[in-house]
Structures are given as structure tokens and as C-alpha cells.
Amino acid sequence: MQPDARSAPAQADHHLLPSAYFSDLAAGRGGPETVRFLRTTEYSRRLLLLRTLLDAVAGTPGALGPLPPVDTAWDILAAAQQRAPEDFAELLMHPQVGIWLGHGLRRMSHTAWGDGPLWTDLGYLYAVCAVAALRAGLPLRTTVPLRDGTAMFPTLGLARLPDRPRWGTAEVVVGGGRLRLDPQGACVGPSGDHGDDAPGWQGLRTLRADVSGRPMTLWMDDIDPYRDLSEPLPPQRLDKDELARWRERFGYALDLLADIDPSTAAAMAVGLRTIVEVRRAPVWVVLSASSGDAFGGLLSSLPPDPVGFAVTLVHEFQHTKLGALLHLLTLEQDAGAERHYAPWRNDPRPLSGLLQGAYAFLGITDFWCRYLDRVPPAGRPLAEFEFALRRRQTQEAVDTLRADPALTAHGRRFLRGMAARLPAWWSDPRIRPETAALAEFTATDHRTGWRIRHLAPAPDDVRALARAFTAGAAVYGPVAESTVVPDPVAPWSQARAGLIRQRLAVPDAGDWPAPSAADRALAAGDPAAPDDYARLLAGDPEDADAWTGLVLALGGSPLLHRPELPRAVHRELRLTGTTADPGDVARWLAAGLGT
Fold first, then answer.
1. How confident is the model at residue 163 (pLDDT cuts 50, 70, 90)?
2. Among residues 239, 357, 391, 514, which is most buried (max CB within 10 A)?
3. Beta bridge mates, 211
4. Do residues 385 and 309 make contact, with C-beta atoms less than 8 angstroms apart?
5. Cβ–Cβ < 8 Å for 492, 449
6. Helix (H, G, I), strand (E, B), or coil: what is residue 489?
7. Count of alpha carbons within 13 angstroms of residue 234, beta-carbon side
8. Distance (Å) of CA 412 to CA 52, 229, 326, 340
């Protein structure tokens, strides 16, 4: 980046992906050198995005409001890059800077909105400039926007100025190795000086671990407005007990990963930079996310234990690697319709979403496979189940992906690399048959429930089937394939999945939704389960959970391949004024579809 050569930022080079790195990534892996390469390519992308944003701002009169001209920002960033290139690259690669760049570009193109004037978002640029100048040892006097009397300095912390308007400005002076916000504001050095809090200052805190004898440090970000994946957020400070829990579980999780998969742990030490807490998650599930805008960053609710934390890190790090690869290569060319079943999601997914999920679960399956050699005896049943379930889900997703014609040549090669991992997992002798059966039941339960909620049979077929049932005739013959009609608000309790996991782990672990008596009967193999579900449906004939349970309770029924039919036919019968027992409708369809 040079002030007198603005047409092309320095170091935004062309990159050739080595074949060995591609193969490594396709197999779900990617060691430190591969991740280091991806960070280099992402840095080039960040430079281009920064140039694009600054050009857009320069071409939009008034975009910066009361802030300095955009050329002053370019000059200081160029000088900082030249003086301290490594520090500059680390700052620009900070995940929250990436989220800000994406948000700023979307605001400029009117595809995103903020909670304040445009300049309050774009002005984060001057906070980046201040940190760049501080780390490069350059003097600077500039102006930053205030958001509710605060100004965030990425990788340092949050300065607070009391009694300021919601949207205002403050002067920043950098010099003598210090950064000061206004005469009465906070004064900090390049390391932030205050890992916790001080008058007028909240420092960006850290999580630390050792990976093969080398320290690994992540920012635990609870203050940056650009720590989320959408709109800016106000600071929400973790208390000391919450922070202590994060630090303890993170340390144990990295110890576990370094033990069972040292290459992945070392790659994370190269690639990961920040964790942001997702609050208000159910106790029984970990909510996590990442973004292609924020290489090295992830969001997560606090995992319940180190194993869950390790799984979450693996999950989101897979997304991080694939997101960077997709900035280099096109693996699919699809219109983006939500048409695919993803075994770990309740909603239909576009091809790109299924690819991301399958890649994440390739890494998760690999984790459980490796963990089986280290798991304590008390945790073995659940670990076996997780491995068996994840290989089943990953296999189904990979098979779906490989059959999709929207994959490019690169995409087909990538999927071959993913698929090559699967046979060894299926031949693993450590999974007991009864555990494999539980995993199969759980996978079938989810797929059945998904089809019932999101697939719509052809209306003409449904009407013909209803007439045949009413007449006591055989099932109307051939039934067309159903179409995907997403139901984004369909309720889904997951009670049966929780029941199985509770049986495999500590009986009172977690806070899963309570299973019904019919669910318990199904899990126990009670032959009365179909009638129990039919009684539930008599009270609520649209209950997707109960229809799923009824189809499962009928055993190896042909309905497992078309479970959306009974509810649709029963609904048609009700519309025509015909009273019918849900169990009778399901059995009639099962008998007819099986002929």
C-alpha cells in the first residue's frame, strides 16, 4: 500500500494454490503451512477490500460527515504498512476489521443498514489508523466517531467518554508510544496496558493455551461493535466468573486437541484470533458461527465441557479454511435455492450451505474418531455414538453433493478428496452394533422430521390418495416426487434425540426438551407407540413431531421414504369432512406403498 500508487495496493498479489494444499484441504485437513498460506491470501483480499471501500467513500460526498478526508487515512495506513509490515498485516487481518470492511461496503451499496449515521460506521477506519500508527511508532492526530460515548480501537480496547451524545466525535493523539483519546480520555500503549479495565478504558481480554510447548493467545471479544456477523452491537462485558470459565475450558480444549490431533491444534494457533460469546443459547446445544469476512474469528456460546469446546473449535475452523479456499476457487455454481437436506440442520439448505456443513462435519467426524483412543471409560458410549452419527450424516451429505451437477471441476475434485476419508470410518471396528443402531435411528428420525416439515406432495396425488382411502380402495398408484417448500417457522423439539443422548451420558445431563410418553414408548420398543402417537395427533393433527414418531413407530415401513404423505393425506381428509384415525391413514399408505 503506497500513497503515490493507489491503483493497486502493495502485496495484493496473485496467488497460486499448491496442489498439495488443495488435497490436504479436500481431505478435511490443513496443517500450519496450509493455514499460513490461506492467511496470506486473505491478507491480499483484505487489502483489496480496503482499497474498494476507500474508493467508494472518496466517490461519495459527505460519506464521512464530520470526520477527516479519506486521503488522510490512506496516507497513514500506507506509512504504517511500510514502517511495520507485520504489525500492519496482523491488524488488518483482525477478524473484527474484516467484519467492519464487509459491513462498510454493504452500507455503501445500500444492502445493509446501521443504527446510526453512515459516518459512524465508516469512521471505524480512523480507529484502525490510530492503532496502525501506534504499532508502527508513527505520530498521528485524527478524529474518531463515538457510539454512545465509546470508541473501539481494534486489538486494544474500548475507550469511554462520559456525558457525550449518542453519535459524536473525539480527538485521538498518538505519540511517544501512547494513544490518548481527548485530554481527559484513556491513555494506552501498544499492548493496551490494561487487560481488564481502568478508568475510561475496557481492555480487550484474552484466552491462552499452550500448543506443543508454544503459547497460543486468542482475543475474547465482548466490546467491539463489529464482533457480530450482522449489525453493530453494544459492548456486553463478561463478568469475572464467566471469563474464568471461558479461560479454563479453552485451555483444556486446546490440551485435548494438542493430544489427539497436534497438526490441527498447531494450525489453529496459526489461524485463529478471536472468540465472541453468543448469549442466550439453550443449555443443551452449543450455538456457533463464523464468516468469510472474518478469517480467524468465531462466535460461540460457552460449550459445556472441554470436549464440546474442542468440537466447536474444529467445526468453525473447518468453515474458516473452506471460506478462504472459496475466495480462491469456485467449487459450485448454483442459483442458491434452499433445496437440500442437511442432516445437522432443521431447515433446507442451498448447495453452498450443504457444502460448508459437510466440510465442517468431516472435521467433526475426524475429531470423534481420534478421540475414541483417549476417551475415559465413562464417556465412551456417548463418544462412540457421536462418531457413528457424524459419519452417517457426513456420508449422506457427501453423497448428495457428489450427485449435484452444479459442482465445478474443482468442486468435483474437492468432493472426491472428502469422500476418500469415509471408507476407513465405516470399517472402524470400535463401534458396537447397538451404538451404530442408535445413530441410525437418530439420523432417520431427523431426516423423517425434515421431510414432513419441508416437503410438499403433489396436490393432485394427495387428493387422489384421500379419495382412495375414503373408498376403501388400494393406494393410488405412482406418486410423484414431492417438492421442497421450506417452512421457516416449523417447531421442532428434538426430544427423542435428547432422550438418546441422556441415556448415553449422565441421565440428568443437559436441559433437553421433555420427551412425550409416546417418545418413551418408541425408544423402549413398546408396540403401543403407534397408538400413543395417534392419540397425540387426535389433539393436534398438524404436530410434525408426532407424525414423525408415528412413521418411525411403524417400523421398517416404506413410509420412511415418503413420510410427508400421511400428514398431507390426513389434512386433505379433514378438509373434505372425513374423520380418519392418523394411524389408520399411515398404515394404509405403508401397505400400499410397499406393494
1. confident
2. 391
3. 214
4. no
5. yes
6. coil
7. 8
8. 32, 30, 14, 17
